[in-house]
Amino acid sequence: MARFSWALASSTTAIVILSNIVLFNNLWWSVLVSAVVDDPSTTVLHPPQAGSNRHTMFLPLFPPPRNSSRIPSFSVDGKSRRHLQKSNTGRRHAWMALHDDLIVDGYYTTWLWIGSPPHKFALIVDTGSTVTYVPCSTCDPCGNHQDPKFDPKSSSTYQPLKCNENCTCDKNKKQCVYENLYAEFSTSSGVLGEDIISFGNQSELSPQRAIFGCENVETGDLYSQHADGIMGLGRGNPSLVDQLVDRGVISNSFSLCYGGMDTLGGVMVLGGISPPSRMVYAYSDPTRSPYYNIDLKELHVAGKRLPLSQSVFNGKLGTVIDSGTTYAYLPEAAFLAFKNVVMKELHSVKQIKGPDPSYDDICFSGAGSDVSKLLKTFPLVEMMFGKGQKLSLTPENYLFRHSKVPGAYCLGIFSNGPDPTTMLGGIIFRNTLVMYDRKNEKIGFLKTNCSDLRATLHV
Question: Are strands 266-270 and 187-198 parallel, antiparallel or unpaired?
Answer without folding.
Answer: unpaired
